[in-house]
Amino acid sequence: MTEPLTRAEASQYTQTSRSTDVLAFVDALCARTKLARRVDFGQSGEGQPLAALVVSDRNCFTPELARKQKKVIVMVEANIHAGEVEGKESVLALARDLTLTKLGAKLLDKLCLVLVPNFNPDGNDRISPNNRELDLKNLEGQVNPEGGVGTRYTGEGWNLNRDNMKQEAPETRALAALHQRWWPHVFIDCHTTDGSIHAFDLTYDTSHSNEPLFQELRHFNRVLLERVAQAVSKRHGFESFWYGNYKEEGEPRSGWHTYPALPRFGSHYRGLLGRIDVLLETYSYLDFPRRCAVMRAWLLELLRDAAKNAGSYLAITSAEEARIVARGETPDVSTLVGINYGVATRDAEGKLVFEYPAHARPGDEAVLQSFDEASITARRYPGKRAKSYRVPHHRTFVPTQAVSTPAGYLVPASLAARLEGHGIRFERLSAARRFTVDSYRVARREETFSPDVAANVPPPGQAEVPLSQKPKPVRFETVLTVAPERSTREFPADTLLVPTAQRAGTLAVYLLEPHSDDGFCRWRFLDEQLTVGELFPVHRVVEPVRAPRKAE
After folding, report:
1. Preceding peptide of 362 cis, ω within 30°
2. N or C: which end of the chain has fewer CB within 10 A?
3. Counting beta carbons within 10 angstroms of the beta carbon of residue 249, is it exposed (0 to 12), middle (13 to 18) or buried (19 or more)?
4. Which regions in the chain score pLDDT beneath 50?
């Protein structure tokens, strides 16, 4: 019997898989092997099924069995931006090879894989050869397969990799529920990046949010990524480095700068949950077959590393979860959670805008494989002459606002569904009750534009507007200036009591503080309850809070 081929393989990499192709491949694979099972976990905005492929041995197709068998649960998300299709093709092909060949024999005993090959099916099917069209002058786009690729945004216009905190897209909410059910030890997010001219095949990264708070996990994550990069180089011949761009574009000596530490980005969001996270970015100026090959190599070596070091993966995530819970059980005012990393500025019209600078620690250097400066300046790829640069590595973020973890929060009932969306437990007060709380008085209220969060989507077959053309703003944020004050007051029945002694406790802090750069207030979910001069409707509980008897 012929092994199933992806559309990319069958077309000699001139086309990418449509959503129907993905589902047909998944179903064909499940019919061929007892090591794979399809699990649908929701629907897209336009009604297409969101499908996961669970791959493991010993009939391990539920999170309960995976935990009982002490397997490392690895979740892989691909095609979140549906113009970046290499992860989609590589996840499918690798799943086939792990189950129909001997490749997975030793891996699947240690691992349970939850693969989401096509997270953005509606964007995927808006295929056009002009999407992500290569434009080196503006350092954007890619070498496309002849048949074209899908769109960055969903059919409803959401950028799913800016939606993790606000969860406005149905795809985001569905994946969040899947993530909470499986609670993977490792999450791998597959992308393709343009940007600065360099000579790497792929760049990788992990969460940078609250590094001092998650110091042990962040160190573990960085060491494993550098270890896997070496394995990919040795076994597959691809060169990789930490994700970034030149701090000053066209000036390689200016430094290497990572992306903003906002948890609207998936890696930073999952970092707040104390899990191992991997961001993979193939380089868009490579040809399509090479991009798929380097993505497959990285996925395979990540799985090999997780299987080889399964005990360490399980231990570090368990210890981090315990530390998160402990911060809520015994609050320490000297241990701070960074909740805002933005530096406020004003544009020429006086409008409020934010920058999110990363800093280079003394001695933290990046050794960049790139090209001669003339090629970089001319935006020529590949460059005429290979050249390396040793430069400052800007990947440390310093919060502009930070708070301690309180025992809990008192929250208006209107936020119940949003808390549930993040898997945050709470209880409703059955009767009025007095609490000593730290509250915030709203001193000022402003608005800022949310870049690359949402877009007006063109009809199927038409190309989306490149970011260099600055698409029209469609989403905005509320920015508050607040002053703290303490009081003892009564809260009415039906108020939500949110303890921070839970696995999502640090995330709860980031979501509920009024001056958070990515919380419920920032995303305008509390706008109708805000009045300048009055108290912010979420309050920090000073005294200890018992855990709720049941989640709502």
Report:
1. no
2. N
3. middle
4. 551-552
